[in-house]
Design a protein that fits this description.
Layout (H helix, E strand, L loop, with lengths): L1 E6 L3 H12 L4 E4 L27 H13 L4 E3 L4 E5 L4 E4 L4 E9 L3 E3 L15 E2 L2 H8 L4 E4 L3 H10 L6 E4 L9 H8 L4 E4 L2 E8 L3 E8 L6 E4 L2 E4 L3 E3 L29 E3 L11 H22 L1
Parallel strand pairs: 1-2, 1-6, 2-3, 6-17, 8-15, 9-10, 9-15, 10-11
Antiparallel strand pairs: 4-5, 5-6, 7-16, 12-13, 13-14
Helix pairs in contact: 1-2, 1-6, 3-4, 4-5
The structure holds flavin-adenine dinucleotide (FAD).
C-alpha cells in the first residue's frame, strides 16, 4: 500500500511527486511513456512564460525539472501501461497483471493531440506529416505545404512555415479562424498564405511521401486535389481520461472536474494539470495544481494519524 500513486509524469505529475516526497509521503509515479516530461517533449519554441526560468525549448525546461526531481526520493516507473483503475478502492491493475493500491491517487494524464481520422493521417507519419513547424522547418523548406486547423497552434505554425515554404494553405472547417487577432492579421497580409475556410481535408495522398491532399469546400459537390509536399495537423487536443470514465465526474468534453483543492468526485482522488484544465492549460498551472493536491492529501493523511 502506497500513500499516493500519481498517474502521468508531465509537469503536473512531476511537481506533485516532488511535493509528495517533500511532505514525507510514500510516492509512486506511473508513466506510460519511455521518459518523463509529457508535452514538454513537444515544445520546440522558446518558453518565456514560466516565471523565473527562460528556456530555449521544452526539453531545456524539462532538464531543469529533471535536475530538481533527481534530488527527490520517489519511485518512478516509466513504460508502465495501466490496464484498469478502481478509483473507489484506489486500486490499479497494470497491463503486466500486477495490482497496486494507494490511499490517494493523483491523476495527471494530460492531453493528446486530436486526430482527424482521415486516410493518410497515420500512414504518412515520418513521410510528410510534420510534427511541428519549428522543429521541421528546414526539412520542409522549399515545399508547398498544407496546415489543417484554425486555432492559435495552426496559425502560428502556418506563419512559421510561410517564412520558408513557397506556399502554405491553411484549411479550416469553421467560418472564421479562431486564432488570436495578431495571427489573423499577419496571415491576411502574408502573400505566401492562403486560407480555405469552411473546408475539410478528406484524404492525404501519395506514394512513399505525401504528394497531395483532397479538400472539400463548403457548397462543393466534389472534392479537389491540391499538390503538397507536407501536412501539419493542429485540430486541438483531447483529455486522457478514458481510464476513469464512469468513475468520476467529467465535463462534456471529457475533462475531469476538480475543485480548487484539486479534489474530484471520488474520495482521495485528485486531478491536476491539463486533464482537468480545459480553459487554462499551462505549465505553471500544472505544477501549481501538483503542489496543491500534494498538500491537501498530506494534510488529510496527517489528520488521520
Ligand atoms: C507546442 C506546445 C507549446 C506549449 N507552450 C507552452 C508555453 O509556452 N507555456 C505554457 O505554460 N504551456 C505551454 N504548453 C502547454 C504545456 O505543455 C501543458 O500545459 C503542460 O505540459 C501540462 O502538463 P500535464 O502534466 O498536465 O500534462 P502533459 O504534459 O500532457 O503530461 C501528461 C503525462 O501523462 C502521461 N500519461 C497519459 N496517460 C497515461 C496513463 N494512462 N498512464 C500513465 N501515464 C499516462 C503522458 O504520457 C504524459 O507524460 C505548450 C504545449 C504544446 C504542445
Amino acid at each position: 500500500m502506497h500513500d499516493v500513486i500519481i498517474i502521468g509524469a508531465g509537469p503536473a505529475g512531476l511537481a506533485a511527486a516532488f511535493w509528495c516526497d517533500e511532505l514525507g509521503l510514500d510516492t509512486l509515479v506511473l508513466e506510460q511513456g519511455e521518459s518523463v516530461g509529457g508535452q514538454l517533449q513537444k515544445i520546440y519554441n522558446p518558453i518565456n512564460n514560466y516565471l523565473g526560468v527562460a528556456a530555449a525549448n521544452g526539453q531545456e525546461l524539462l532538464d531543469r525539472f529533471a535536475a530538481g526531481v533527481d534530488q527527490a526520493d520517489f519511485d518512478l516507473w516509466t513504460n508502465t501501461a495501466i490496464d484498469s483503475v478502481e478509483l473507489k478502492a484506489r486500486r490499479i491493475r497494470l497491463a503486466s497483471g500486477e495490482d497496486l493500491q494507494a490511499i490517494g491517487i493523483i491523476i495527471a494524464t494530460g492531453v493528446r493531440r486530436r486526430k482527424l481520422g482521415i486516410p493518410g493521417e497515420d500512414e504518412f507519419v515520418g513521410h510528410g506529416i510534420m510534427e511541428s513547424g519549428a522543429r521541421d522547418a528546414q526539412l520542409f523548406a522549399g515545399r508547398d505545404v498544407c496546415v489543417i486547423g484554425g486555432g492559435d497552434a495552426a496559425a502560428e505554425n502556418a506563419l512559421l512555415l510561410a517564412e520558408i515554404c513557397p506556399t502554405v494553405t491553411l484549411v479550416h472547417r469553421g467560418k472564421t479562424l479562431r486564432a488570436r487577432q495578431e495571427f489573423r492579421e499577419r496571415i491576411q497580409s502574408n502573400h505566401c498564405l492562403t486560407v480555405f475556410k469552411e473546408a475539410q481535408v478528406q484524404r492525404i495522398l501519395g506514394g512513399e511521401q505525401i504528394e497531395a491532399v483532397e479538400i472539400l469546400r463548403a457548397g462543393a459537390i466534389k472534392p479537389f486535389q491540391m499538390a503538397v509536399g507536407g501536412v501539419l495537423i493542429r485540430v486541438g487536443v483531447e483529455p486522457n481520461s478514458e481510464l476513469f470514465r464512469g468513475q468520476l465526474q467529467l465535463d462534456p468534453r471529457g475533462y475531469i472536474i476538480a475543485n480548487g483543492e484539486r479534489e474530484t468526485s471520488s474520495e482521495n482522488v485528485f486531478a491536476i494539470g491539463d486533464v482537468s484544465s480545459p480553459l487554462a492549460p499551462t505549465i505553471s498551472g500544472a505544477t501549481g495544481a501538483g503542489a496543491t493536491a500534494a498538500k491537501v492529501l498530506a494534510g488529510r493523511l496527517t489528520a488521520r494519524g
